[in-house]
Amino acid sequence: MAEAQDQLPISDELFTLMRGAAAHAKRMGERFVSSYALLLALMDDPVVGAALAAVIDREKLDGLFEVRKAERERALAAAAEANQAHFGEGMRATKREDALEDPRAVADPVVEPASSRGEPPPMQRYDTLAFTCGNGDERIWLSHESFAIFTEGARRADGRLMPHHIGIGFAAEAVRSPGVLAQLRVEPGKVTDALFKL
C-alpha cells in the first residue's frame, strides 16, 4: 500500500479512464464527475470493463442515465417554479444549482485568499481533483463521492495507480455509502471479486 507521504504515479490507462469519466459527465450535463460517470468509464475500460461485465448489466447502467436526467430536470423545474412564485416573474434566486443535488454529487469550493492587488482568483477551485475532457480545453472536477472513490483506490495501489484500483475503491466506497451499485442491485463484494481476478 502507498504511504501517505509517497507520491503515487498515475498510469496512462488511469488518465484515459478519468478523461472518459469527465467526458461522460459533460455528455450528461453534470457539473462534476459523479460516481455514475465514473462507473460508465470503468465499464468502457477494455480490461476493467470486461471483468465488470460479468457482474454489472451495462444496459441497466445506461438506463439509469434517463432516470437521472429526468430527476435533475424535475428538480430544476421545481426550483424555477418556486423561485418564480417567491420572487415574481423575471426574477430568480441566487441559490447555487448544486444545492438541488445530492451533496455527494458536488464538491465544496475552496475559499481563495484576496490577492495583494485585489484581483479576483484566476479560477474556481474545489477540495477535489479535476480532469480534462475532450481536446483538453475543459476540466471537470470530481464530486465528493468520486473523490472518495479515487482516494480509496489510491490507498489500495502499490506501485502505479491503475483503473482496477479505482474499481476496487468504487466497491469499497459502495459498502460505506450505497449509491449507483445499490441502484443496480449489485453487491460491492461481487465487483471486488471480479477485479481481484485481474
Overview of this protein structure:
The chain has eight helices and three strands, in the order αβαααββαααα. The chain has helices at 12-28, 35-44, 48-52, 58-87, 144-155, 163-176, 180-184, 188-196, and strands spanning 32-33, 130-133, 138-142. The protein has a domain at 12-58 and 104-109 and 125-196: Clp, N-terminal domain (Double Clp-N motif). Mean pLDDT is 84; it is low at 1-5. Helix 1 (12-28) crosses helix 2 (35-44). The chain is globular. A hairpin with a 4-residue loop joins strand 2 (130-133) and strand 3 (138-142). Helices cover 52% and strands 6% of the residues. Strands 1-3-2 form a three-stranded mixed β-sheet. It has 198 residues and is mainly alpha-helical.
Sequence of strands across the biggest β-sheet = 1-3-2
Global structural class: mainly alpha
Q: How many beta-strand elements?
A: 3
Percent strand equals: 5-15%
Overall 3D form: globular
Give a quick account of the main beta sheet: strands, pairing sense, barrel closure.
3 strands, mixed
Could you give a quick summary of the protein structure above?
By secondary structure, this protein is mainly α.
From the structure above, extract its key features:
Double Clp-N motif; single chain; disordered N terminus; mainly alpha; 198 residues; 6% strand; 8 helices; 3-stranded mixed β-sheet; globular
Ordered list of secondary-structure elements with their pairings:
Layout: H1 12-28, E1 32-33, H2 35-44, H3 48-52, H4 58-87, E2 130-133, E3 138-142, H5 144-155, H6 163-176, H7 180-184, H8 188-196
Helix pairs in contact: 1-2, 5-6, 6-8
